[in-house]
Amino acid sequence: MDSSVALGRLEHARPVMTRGSCLPEGAQSAHLNGCVPLSHQVAGHKYGVDKVGILQHPDGTVLKQLQPPPRGPREMQFYSMVCAEDHCDPCLVDLKAHLPKYYGTWSSPDAPTDLYLKLEDVTRRFQKPCIMDVKIGQKSYDPFASQEKREQQIRKYPLMEEIGFLVLGMRVYKVGSDSFDTYDQHYGRGLVKDAIKEGLSKFFYNGDILRKDAITASILRVQKILQWFEAQSRFNFYASSLLFVYEGVYEGVSQTLRESPTAPEACEQNNNINQSLSNMYSLHKKSCGRSHHQANQDNGVWSSSQQPNGNRSLARLEEDRKESKSEAGQETVSDVEVKMIDFAHVFPSDVPDQGYIYGLKNLLKVLHQILEE
Predict the structure, then answer these.
(1) Distance between CA atoms of 248 and 205, rounded to whole angstroms?
(2) Is 124 inside any structural domain?
């Protein structure tokens, strides 16, 4: 089905409702009906601060309040279309794998007209989730935005068009103190071009080591999203983000270091794992070939550095990851989630989304730089 037709039909479709009777929880306000503000939210509107916020349902799902029209209905229609169980559209099936699970809409019996999108909490299975929200694309406003809105968004981060992505927030677990460091949107907006690599690397530094395993796994997942974008010409995404999550408790390294920071065996184990990752990346670079590392401004990468080809390197990097895991005798590349979120500004199109592709390629380039250095 043509995407524009599908979106048009969904405008008249009746939303799926999950009217819950959330059980009261302690001293929570009655109007929350047992739902609480999302404690690990790193970006976006926050409940209690903004009228539109994000809540956690007692069943563990995330509730995102529907924004005012046309943004809210547009996002709901997009989720409904992509996550419909009765379609067999390969493009949408592949896209669905990169989104949080969608469970329809929910409203409290106390306020039945206030709709929330009911979504999977991507962080739930992690013990100490490290979370980063990165807005992707060269423009954070859609084609129908007013001139005032365009100027407002450009003022927030003038480098968006050149860099192609913006860190909206981070939450990083520190092993030594058993606590989290948080960075808000002002941190990301303060990152100039020359500081992007260092600024992004903070997300992968746990106070003891740079989590190269998490970087490698993140690269693999972003490359898969890039593959989808390079193959589709049906949607353009604006002001949409990638949500990164990895486990802060690093068994075999962080746990050992926390219990005995000066133990020689802990240092040796740390060195072995980092050496294994270094060997893996060296193999990955060789497999890409010299031509894939040449600077290429036409493909949307900065000329000052190099980037392996996102598509052709994917299979090789995955093979190297498995070889590294086998040689080390343990899981050296962490389990990471990278999900696409925020779809209030998604529009049908008949051309590739070059702005989003540009942002993904530049993000991959920076991740490769951090991993290599």
Answers:
(1) 10
(2) no
Distances (CA, A) of 297 to 151, 304, 307, 362: 26, 9, 11, 11
pLDDT on residue 3: 45
- Count of structural domains within the chain: 2
What pLDDT shows up at residue 34?
Answer: 81
- Choose the final residue of a domain: 95, 119, 143: 119
Sheet bearing 336-341, strands edge to edge: 179-183, 165-174, 129-136, 240-247, 336-341
Query: Is residue 77 located within the same domain as residue 45?
Result: yes
Q: Which domain holds residue 239?
A: 129-372
Q: Give CA separation, 159 vs 127, 188, 363, 367, in Å.
A: 35, 11, 14, 18
Is residue 111 located within the same domain as residue 220? no
Among residues 119, 141, 165, the one where a domain terminates is 119
Question: What CATH number is attached to the domain comprising 306?
Answer: 3.30.470.160
Averaged in consecutive runs of 10 residues, what is the pLDDT profile of the chain (373 residues)?
44 40 38 74 55 83 94 98 92 98 94 94 94 98 97 97 98 96 96 97 97 97 99 98 95 51 44 49 45 40 42 55 45 76 98 99 99 90
Pairing state between β 235-237 and 346-348: antiparallel
Let me know: does 88 contact 131? Beta carbons within 8 Å.
no
